[in-house]
Specification:
The complex is a heterodimer of chains A (277) and B (330). Chain A is of the alpha/beta class. Helix content of chain A is 44%, strand content 22%. Chain A folds into two domains: 1-81 and 172-277, P-loop containing nucleotide triphosphate hydrolases (Rossmann fold); 91-170, no CATH class. In chain A, strands 6-7-8-3-9-10 form a six-stranded mixed β-sheet, sandwiched between helices. In chain A, strand 9 and strand 10 form a beta hairpin. The two termini of chain A are 32 Å apart. With 330 residues, chain B is an all-alpha fold. Chain B has a domain at 41-245. Helix content of chain B is 72%, strand content 2%. Chain B has helices spanning 19-40, 43-68, 76-92, 97-116, 124-144, 146-149, 170-192, 195-205, 207-212, 217-239, 253-266, 271-287, 292-309, 313-326, and strands spanning 155-156, 161-162, 165-166, 245-246. In chain B, a hairpin with a 2-residue loop joins strand 2 and strand 3 (165-166). In chain B, helix 2 crosses helix 8, helix 2 crosses helix 12 and helix 8 (195-205) crosses helix 10 (217-239). The longest helix of chain B is centred in the first third of the chain and has 26 residues, at 43-68. The mean pLDDT of chain B is 91. The chains are: A alpha/beta (277), B mainly alpha (330).
Chain lengths: 277, 330
């Protein structure tokens, strides 16, 4: 793995009395697929919002490559090559799918209001060039059938895809997916796995996802970070994380049988340590 | 389905008119209106036509803000006033008309930009009240700044001239207004289908997502206010020559509301809608000129009916008609 693309260092933020993030650090290497998991309310989406500039962490830093992101506005951060999708789909309902995805090309277009009003050759050339890019993205996600339909008239699963298409149209270096598989059936989820892999492998985009479907997370991720009550309790490869007792406690609670099982496991670890020199 | 309707290139999606039929229809209307105004219409009718054309411009300006960008304004009569006063003051001092009219629009744009700044924090009803404040304040300032604006008495408006060529004749002045109107219509339509227009609509539909995709809210909201005020100010500057004097009460709150009615009845986020809405409302007013006390009863009833039964306004009716006749007579 090459250098770190994104490094979050000791990010903290509180809402009133709730410490939503407590000194969370996370490094994301370039070209990796990293999942952030955790129980509801663990701070996963808050972490995303701190990275994308929706919230400003009270402490700590978030760096994308050379650039510090804390204190920048979301549209500046987008211009640095970061795109995201949202947990509750945030699309432009009264725009066509084509226009939604074209808006993803906004930062790649330069025409100002005066030129736009005249709509001369240069504007037409730019629109056509961007349209070509958009069609590539629509092809990639099989969305051609919905091109001219209003987003508000589309079913949920298609909207999720449109949102992903819009994010990809930005040609980001880093893509943040907030629960991409929520509301999808098994077949759609399987498609999604391939799509996410292709985005990384063919487009070279680094991906961070927040996800609740453990099968998907463990199957696709290079690294998994686990948040609970605003703190990062584990970070490692999928197999390391599944075996981590802290993670099991966070997910399953401290039921007596689990605790016993964990206790045994912990004893084994202690014994193993004693045996080792 | 006609084979000609199949598009083969992306640029075919970017033409001004959809196919030869709508281009022909638009051309027919333009020629017909010019011929009618020059050779058939009496002075009164031409006067009504000028009002319609100017309020089409103003309504397009307001629609860019309300319909496309989703920001309400109750202060657009004030932008008209600023356009009109700036133009008249400069024009009376001897500057040429072709300079002072754009100058009026530009002054309105600058103030539009300033009014746009609070809009970054205010939404919905709060923004409505803030722009209402702007409307009332402008009225008061124009009414009391005697040395510049002539106070409540207003300013005398010299007859319109370009060089030594007089436009005082209504039918000649109509040609100027009509030309400006066509330019505004094409420009506004172009703007709405460009990157800028998409950013406006994105802000209207979902600010969070727009920002996350790289649309700076500060830039685009103030830009929407400035462009909207520019276009409305342009209408205001040309409007000044419809009477011998301008005074602050011409551009009162009622006019702001009338413009909003034009935009709503015509259809939000539609250039064609603004044309239909402004035409409809001005003709209605002229129709009730003798019984103006009933005028607002009718307008109010129509407004409620539109909101209830056709939220897309007259443009919605037009679209439905078009689809219906596409397959006609089957």
């Amino acid at each position: 793995m090459s250098a770190q693309l994104l490094s979050i260092a000791n990010a903290s933020i509180a809402f009133g009395g709730v410490q939503a993030l407590n000194s969370v650090s996370l490094d994301v290497p370039s070209g990796a697929i990293v999942s952030v998991i955790g129980p509801n309310g663990a701070g996963k989406t808050t972490l995303f919002n701190c990275v994308t500039g929706v919230y400003r962490p009270e402490e700590g830093s978030v760096r994308l490559g050379e650039n510090e992101l804390v204190g920048r506005k979301p549209h500046h951060i987008a211009a640095l090559g970061l795109a995201r999708t949202f947990q509750n789909i945030e699309l432009f309902g009264r725009m066509s799918v084509l226009d939604n995805v074209l808006l993803g090309r906004h930062l790649h277009m330069v025409v100002g209001p005066l030129r736009a009003a005249l709509f001369g050759k240069k504007v037409v050339a730019e629109e056509v060039a961007q349209r070509r890019k958009v069609e590539e993205v629509l092809d990639f996600l099989d969305l051609q059938f919905a091109r001219d339909r209003f987003v508000m008239h589309l079913p949920y699963g298609v909207r999720k895809k449109v949102e992903l298409a819009r994010a990809l149209a930005l040609e980001p270096k880093l893509l943040l997916l907030d629960e991409p598989s929520a509301g999808m059936n098994a077949e759609e989820k399987e498609d999604l796995v391939h799509v996410i892999r292709d985005i990384r492998d063919d487009m070279g985009v680094t991906i961070i996802l927040v996800e609740h479907d453990m099968g998907l997370v463990m199957g696709i991720s290079d690294q998994v970070a686990v948040l609970d009550h605003g703190e990062k309790i584990a970070h490692g490869t999928p197999s390391e994380v599944t075996a981590n007792p802290e993670v099991i406690r966070a997910y399953l609670g401290t039921d007596s049988t689990v605790q016993t099982a964990l206790g045994d496991a912990a004893e084994d670890v202690v014994k193993a340590d004693e045996v080792a020199p | 389905m006609n084979n000609d309707e199949l598009k083969r290139e992306y640029r075919e999606d970017l033409t001004l008119f959809e196919g030869p039929w709508s281009r022909g229809l638009a051309l027919f209307f333009v020629v017909a209106l010019i011929v009618y105004s020059q050779f058939f219409a009496g002075n009164y009718v031409v006067f009504v036509m000028i009002s319609i054309v100017l309020f089409v411009i103003a309504a397009v300006g307001l629609n860019l803000l309300v319909g496309y960008t989703g920001q309400i304004s109750l202060g657009h009569a004030a932008f008209m006033a600023i356009g009109a006063y700036t133009h008249v003051i400069l024009y009376s001092k001897g500057a040429p008309l072709l300079v002072t009219v754009p100058a009026g629009a530009l002054m309105a744009a600058i103030l539009g930009f300033v009014v746009g700044i609070p809009a970054l924090r205010l939404k919905g009803p709060y923004l409505a009240i803030a722009t209402l404040g702007f409307q009332v304040a402008t009225d008061q300032i124009l009414g009391r700044w005697d040395s510049l604006t002539g106070g409540r008495m207003g300013l005398g408006v010299p007859g319109p001239e370009i060089g030594s060529y007089s436009l005082a004749e209504p039918r000649t002045y109509f040609l100027l207004c009509f030309a400006v109107c066509l330019l505004v219509l094409v420009g506004a339509y172009n703007l709405t289908r460009s990157r800028i227009g998409r950013a406006f609509v994105a802000i209207r539909d979902n600010e969070t997502a727009a920002e996350a995709m790289g649309v700076g809210l500060t830039t685009y909201k103030t830009m929407a206010f400035a462009i909207s005020a520019f276009v409305t100010g342009l209408a205001g500057a040309l409007f000044a020559h419809l009477s011998d004097r301008i005074n602050p009460s011409t551009f009162n709150l009622f006019l702001s509301i009338e413009m909003l009615v034009m935009v709503l009845v015509g259809g939000l986020a539609s250039i064609l809608g603004s044309v239909l809405g402004a035409t409809f409302l001005i003709m209605l007013q002229q129709g009730f000129a003798g019984a103006s006390e009933y005028q607002w009863i009718i307008v109010g009833t129509i407004l409620i009916a539109v909101l209830l039964f056709e939220p897309m306004g007259m443009r919605g009716r037009w679209l439905r008609m078009k689809y219906y006749f596409k397959a006609w007579p089957f």
